[in-house]
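User: Please run a holo structure prediction.
Assistant: Happy to. Please share the sequence and the ligand.
User: Here you go; the ligand is coenzyme A.
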Amino acid sequence: MDHVGITRDERIATITIDRQKKLNALNPEVIDELGEAFRSLENDDAIGAVILTGAGEKAFVAGADIGVLAEMDSLSGVEVSRQGQEVFRAIERSPKPVIAAVGGYALGGGCELALACHLRIASDNARFGLPEVGLGIIPGYGGTIRLARIVGLGRALELTLTGEMIGAEKAEAMGLVNAVVPQAELMDRARTMAGTIASKAPVALRMALESVYQALDTSTAEALRYESSLFGLLASTDDMKEGMAAFMEKRKADFKGS
Ligand code: COA
């Protein structure tokens, strides 16, 4: 892949978008590669958590590639939006927890990409925003849906309608990011969080994500029934027996993912 790299360190995979001369802007090739990178990890039992980041200190991702957007007509516009939506949805529904490590700009499609991840850690120089309305478009990679779910309708509409950028502190105050750290500590902090997550029972992590995201699309009654089913299913795993035995025996659990 030309612009997306994967590195592995113990049970953590780091996916890096690297198109620095365009501030890691997302063109169709980068989005395809991103999809391929996540697909390649989906069934990899050696990986317990994924970090997604952008290369360089200036940007996580400065948005969809405006050069490409400028050329679209109605039909190709739908395709541009759908391609991003599909890949971002696959990230959101990834069975592995995904942490966005956001340094610098996360604008437009870059902000939407961070929103599709399960958790977000930002460096103190991070800037978030949805500038689309200033370009005569709207967020088209799920941002009009996900932002409101994460920060609430009022704040989401403020960002969406003003197109203004906000800094890391404000993003943390509104719940858009889980933590803010100095730039130099960004990847260490993301790795620490990913390591904590990757030390937990893999099937339980997958089921937790499944229950949370499935609930967004169903009634409360249905979601509760589904949660019970997943809860019951976990009782048949070796990892549940191991987790509880480890607690009782006052030792660290050794999960196998089965
Ligand atoms: N699409 C395409 N190219 C982009 C881009 C994008 N979303 N964001 C940045 N770039 C390119 C710039 O055109 C420039 O390329 P060039 O050197 O060939 O001219 C390069 O990346 C560096 O960006 P530059 O604008 O010179 O950096 P800056 O520090 O002055 O400004 C930003 C940084 C992020 C404020 C500015 O690049 C910007 O506003 N980008 C667009 C953000 C946006 O609207 N995103 C949403 C798109 S839907």
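The chain is about 50% helix and 15% strand.
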